[in-house]
């Protein structure tokens, strides 16, 4: 006995030692490359690249085998149509490809190429597949919501032999030069080519063909040699990681080269953990060797600086050169890859000097579907993103709580835990608006249920949160547990609302709950059903302050190929998963968004409220439905750094409501890293702390001083600037503009700034931030693009601008490097509160930062922050301007509506309590008063004088002055005269 105990003790000691050793040398987190395809392992990617290689090997003798049949061309009402003929080199077969080019009223052009045989269903599917025969033609149905009106002014201006030229766009400044043989299009603006299709001859539409079964070689015989020509090895079946894709329609990829002559930088095509300015992808120093991939996937422990795919896709790219931006949207929902090559050449000295020395040549290919490309001719990035948003929708204006701080972790383990966190945030005076529940709140991962042991009283929990106007976000994923005691799965099965496998049976795979089925949100009936599940009576334990998080919607399938669904699965309408994969996440997000808009249907008094739904997977158009975050990052400095270009890229790609897990999802951040992450997070449009289930607790109060205090300061900064953030969201919701903006967007003429992606402007507030993303750093150099003066946000230290210089800004741990550019007026609310809801009627502070010319302006948008009443005029929109010594507030609301008056009434007591004038004129030294006048009943009248206190410049800081309580209302017109 003794002996055995001694032995087991010794074993225990050895075990302990080994575990300690393991914990000392925890292997670095790393993506499992073997789970995801490289281009070489993706048949159509390899084929399209090989096609490009043979074209460049043949060089000048290469001729694209696609010709537009001149006799087929018709132009009518802004639309050109015709037939492209592909001549198959090996057989001489002629394949008919219907072409349409739509010239839109907005100045955007759209080129669509289909395949006649598939269009007519004149093909034979293999394996007795039930799949649709057409090329997928419904991406438009999900992604596009407007802007398709055909141009009345577009006209054919010449059709010389072999070319058809169409003028379109504003003042007919755009021109499409359609070359017939070989087919290609050049898009010109003001006579200069900006975008070129098939210039390199890489257009490739893999046409339908029957599989020619080769006779099995007899025993002992060698198989016959493969015939010369195309590589068929990946045409029919393709296997990866133990899964075989049956490919019932054979090869059907599409490819096209799109060149941007004179454009050195391209941006966009999120989501990748890469730089803002995209890299070249054909190998070489500092370049990638694989194309950027767009195939929404749950990439575990994703790596940085990589073209690997991530959770979402926006196939929208902008090309930029000095003072010009153009763009393309590749509307295709299948797996897509994009190669980028930059071609350097000598500048033509005789040219007008606008064309750069670099052409960016891109090559796009998708596995299936239509070739459907939109071309935007700018000339500013704002024009490009606005035209793109007119098509795919503008960012939904969020509820105001949604842009405040969110506290999340996997998981708050009980309802009392939630209440405790809430209490401790208050105790430490840390503002927050939302607490989140990850998957563990459910009863055994059955969504729409509560764990009966740990979440016994959801009502008490919600009520406690509501006391401070706080909200709860609960996760709901698309996999539905396949278990006998679950009514939701029974309903889904009996109504046939789940995704099917290739044989047409309900698809089964593995996710958090184990065996699961996936709701098919492409189906209108499934959407209807999904909406019904969110009724208060059905999803019991949820209330008016419950909102939703959609995760795993790529979809993530633990045992599926590349952690997702088999491509030959079937969705509503028998479209193959292959065709719709990248849209899948959007359809689920859309169903949840719809469900949330219908939540109050039975409560006419309450009326609909703006939904808040966070999604991990996304596509063009997801910006209409909520926010996204960058998924499972790591608690490491380089991940903090990488979050900034990723979020900037989302912003210029029409989906600016973006954030990254503050603190890093995997691992435990040091206190310094966590603190710096809060400071950076305070500038993410979507600001949420989140952590993996295996991590230590890290709510801001856990760190202790000085960290807790510093993080609280960062949170307070966010809260005080909420009026500026909300105004930025309003602009995004009406114009598609990014919320945080990279240098190239703000200074399109400043070539030195085109690749800068570690600092940014907050909308047009003039706030310029560069969060610290390196350990131990105490100062930072901020790049200044113009000659304006910049002022430190906190102490008004002056950094005189000079284009192209850097300002060194001191940034000890407690300091966020943040400058204010002269010439702006920033609206704030400075009273510290526990949540944004409690700030609704708080007074405002206006920070007037005078520019070099002594003037400044800014904007404020305000509404009730939750309902849709703003669409009926219930909002305040003011422009503040300072010039010639007078500060004024002017109404810039575009439309009054039935609810305007009521809203204005509710805000009538909300005042401006403080005006700070930074860079105040020297002459104000002796100024004690400013004269105030305010509108009343449409007339302006003198109100009185307000006291001005002037503080003279010292030690490199600017003069500033403060006006306390000038007595003016935020919704009124007024003037404060400092003369
Ligand atoms: C994956 C998500 O990316 C992560 O944020 C979440 O905590 C886990 N799923 C568990 O739901």
TrEMBL record:
EC nos: 3.2.1.20
Compositionally biased region (Acidic residues): 222-235
UniProt domain Glycoside hydrolase family 31 N-terminal: residue ranges: 98-339
Residue ranges crossing the lipid bilayer per the database entry: none
Region annotation Disordered: where it falls in the sequence: 206-255, 927-946
Keywords, ordered alphabetically: Endoplasmic reticulum, Glycoprotein, Glycosidase, Hydrolase, Signal
Domain (Glycoside hydrolase family 31 TIM barrel) ranges: 396-728
Biased composition regions of type Basic and acidic residues, renumbered to the chain: 206-221, 927-945
Subcellular location: Endoplasmic reticulum
Glycoprotein as UniProt keyword: yes
Leader sequence residues: 1-30
Catalytic activity: Hydrolysis of terminal, non-reducing (1->4)-linked alpha-D-glucose residues with release of alpha-D-glucose
Enzyme class: hydrolase
Pfam families: DUF5110, Gal_mutarotas_2, Glyco_hydro_31_2nd, Glyco_hydro_31_3rd
Residue stretches making up the Glycosyl hydrolase family 31 C-terminal domain: 736-826
Pathway per the UniProt entry: Glycan metabolism; N-glycan metabolism
One GO BP annotation of this record: carbohydrate metabolic process
GO-annotated cellular components: glucosidase II complex
Residue intervals of the DUF5110 domain: 845-910
Single GO MF descriptor: carbohydrate binding
Family: Belongs to the glycosyl hydrolase 31 family.
Protein name: alpha-glucosidase
């Amino acid at each position: 006995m003794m002996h055995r105990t001694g032995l087991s003790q010794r074993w225990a000691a050895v075990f302990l030692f080994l575990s300690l050793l393991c914990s000392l040398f925890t292997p670095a987190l790393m993506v499992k490359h073997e789970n995801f395809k490289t281009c070489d392992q993706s048949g159509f990617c390899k084929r399209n690249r090989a096609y490009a290689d043979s074209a460049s090997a043949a060089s000048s003798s290469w001729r694209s085998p696609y010709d537009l049949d001149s006799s087929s061309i018709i132009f009518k009402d802004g639309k050109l149509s015709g037939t492209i003929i592909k001549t198959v080199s090996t057989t001489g077969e002629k394949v008919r490809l219907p072409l349409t080019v739509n010239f839109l009223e907005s100045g955007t052009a759209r080129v669509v190429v289909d395949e006649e045989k598939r269009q007519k269903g004149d093909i034979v599917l293999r394996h007795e597949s039930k799949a649709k025969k057409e090329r997928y033609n419904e991406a438009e149905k999900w992604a596009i919501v407007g802007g398709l009106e055909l141009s009345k002014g577009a006209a054919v201006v010449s059709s010389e032999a072999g070319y058809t030229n169409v003028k379109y766009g504003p003042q007919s400044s755009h021109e499409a030069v359609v070359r017939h043989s070989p087919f290609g299009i050049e898009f010109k603006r003001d006579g200069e080519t900006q975008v070129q299709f098939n210039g390199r001859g890489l257009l490739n539409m893999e046409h339908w063909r029957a599989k020619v079964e080769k006779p099995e070689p007899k025993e002992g015989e060698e198989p016959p040699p493969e015939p010369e020509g195309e590589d068929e090895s990946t045409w029919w079946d393709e296997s990866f990681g133990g899964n075989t894709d049956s490919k019932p329609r054979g090869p059907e990829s599409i490819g096209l080269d799109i060149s941007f002559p004179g454009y050195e930088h391209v941006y966009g095509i999120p989501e990748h953990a890469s730089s803002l300015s995209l890299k070249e992808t054909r190998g070489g120093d500092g370049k990638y060797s694989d194309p950027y991939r767009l195939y929404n996937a749950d990439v575990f422990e994703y790596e940085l600086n990589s073209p690997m795919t991530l959770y979402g896709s926006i196939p929208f790219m902008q090309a930029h050169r000095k003072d010009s931006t153009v763009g393309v949207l590749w509307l295709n929902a299948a797996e897509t890859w994009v190669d980028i090559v930059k071609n350097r050449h000598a500048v033509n000295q005789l040219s007008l000097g606008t064309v750069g020395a670099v052409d960016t040549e891109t090559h796009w290919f998708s596995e299936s579907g239509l070739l459907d490309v939109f071309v935007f001719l700018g000339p500013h990035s704002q024009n490009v993103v606005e035209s793109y948003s007119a098509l795919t929708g503008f960012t939904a204006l969020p509820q105001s709580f949604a842009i405040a701080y969110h506290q999340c972790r996997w998981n708050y383990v009980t309802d009392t835990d939630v209440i405790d966190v809430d209490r401790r945030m208050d105790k430490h005076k840390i503002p927050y608006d939302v607490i989140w529940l990850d998957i563990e709140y459910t009863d055994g991962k059955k969504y729409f249920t509560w764990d009966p042991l740990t979440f016994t009283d959801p009502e008490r929990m919600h009520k406690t949160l509501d006391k401070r106007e706080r909200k709860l976000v609960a996760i709901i994923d698309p996999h539905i547990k396949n278990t006998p005691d679950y009514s939701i799965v029974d309903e889904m099965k009996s109504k046939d609302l789940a995704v099917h496998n290739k044989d047409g049976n309900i698809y089964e795979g593995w996710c958090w709950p184990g065996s699961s089925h996936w709701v098919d949100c492409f189906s209108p009936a499934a959407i209807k059903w999904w909406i019904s599940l969110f009724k208060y009576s059905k999803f019991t334990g949820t209330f008016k302050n419950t909102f939703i998080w959609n995760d795993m919607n790529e979809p993530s399938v633990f045992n599926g190929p590349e952690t997702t669904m088999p491509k030959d699965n079937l969705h509503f309408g028998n479209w193959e998963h292959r065709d719709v994969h990248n849209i899948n996440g959007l359809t689920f997000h859309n169903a949840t968004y719809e469900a949330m808009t219908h939540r109050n249907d039975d409560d006419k008094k309450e009326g609909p409220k703006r939904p808040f739904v966070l999604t991990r997977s996304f596509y063009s158009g997801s910006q209409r439905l909520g926010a996204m975050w960058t998924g499972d990052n790591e608690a490491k400095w380089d991940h903090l750094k990488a979050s900034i270009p990723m979020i900037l890229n989302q912003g210029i790609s029409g989906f600016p409501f973006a954030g990254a897990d503050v603190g890093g999802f995997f691992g435990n951040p040091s206190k310094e890293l966590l603190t710096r992450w809060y400071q950076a997070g305070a500038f993410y449009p979507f600001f949420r702390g989140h952590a993996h289930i295996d991590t230590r607790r890290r709510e801001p109060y856990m760190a202790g001083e000085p960290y807790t205090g510093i993080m609280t300061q960062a949170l307070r900064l966010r809260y005080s600037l909420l009026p500026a953030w909300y105004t930025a969201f309003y602009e995004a919701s009406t114009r598609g503009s990014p919320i945080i903006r990279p240098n190239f967007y703000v200074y399109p003429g400043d070539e030195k700034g085109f690749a800068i992606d570690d600092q940014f402007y907050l909308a047009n507030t003039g706030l310029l931030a560069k969060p610290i993303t390196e350990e131990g750093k105490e100062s930072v150099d901020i790049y200044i693009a113009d000659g304006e003066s910049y002022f430190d946000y906190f102490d008004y230290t002056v950094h005189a601008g000079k284009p192209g210089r850097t300002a060194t800004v001191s940034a000890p741990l407690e300091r966020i490097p943040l400058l204010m550019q002269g010439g702006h007026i920033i609206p704030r609310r400075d009273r510290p509160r526990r949540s944004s809801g409690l700030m609704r009627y708080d007074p405002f502070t206006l920070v007037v930062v005078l520019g070099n010319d002594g003037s400044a302006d800014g904007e404020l948008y305000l509404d009730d922050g939750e309902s849709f009443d703003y669409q009926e005029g219930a909002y305040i929109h003011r422009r503040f301007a300072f010039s010639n010594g007078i500060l004024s507030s002017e109404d810039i609301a575009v439309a009054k509506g039935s609810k305007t008056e009521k809203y204005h009434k509710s805000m009538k007591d909300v005042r401006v309590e403080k005006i700070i004038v930074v860079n105040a004129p020297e002459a104000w030294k002796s100024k004690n008063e400013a004269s105030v006048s305010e509108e009343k009943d449409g007339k302006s009248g003198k109100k009185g004088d307000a006291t001005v206190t002037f503080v003279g410049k010292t030690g490199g800081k600017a003069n500033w002055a403060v006006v306390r309580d000038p007595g003016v209302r935020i919704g009124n017109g007024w003037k404060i005269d400092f003369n």
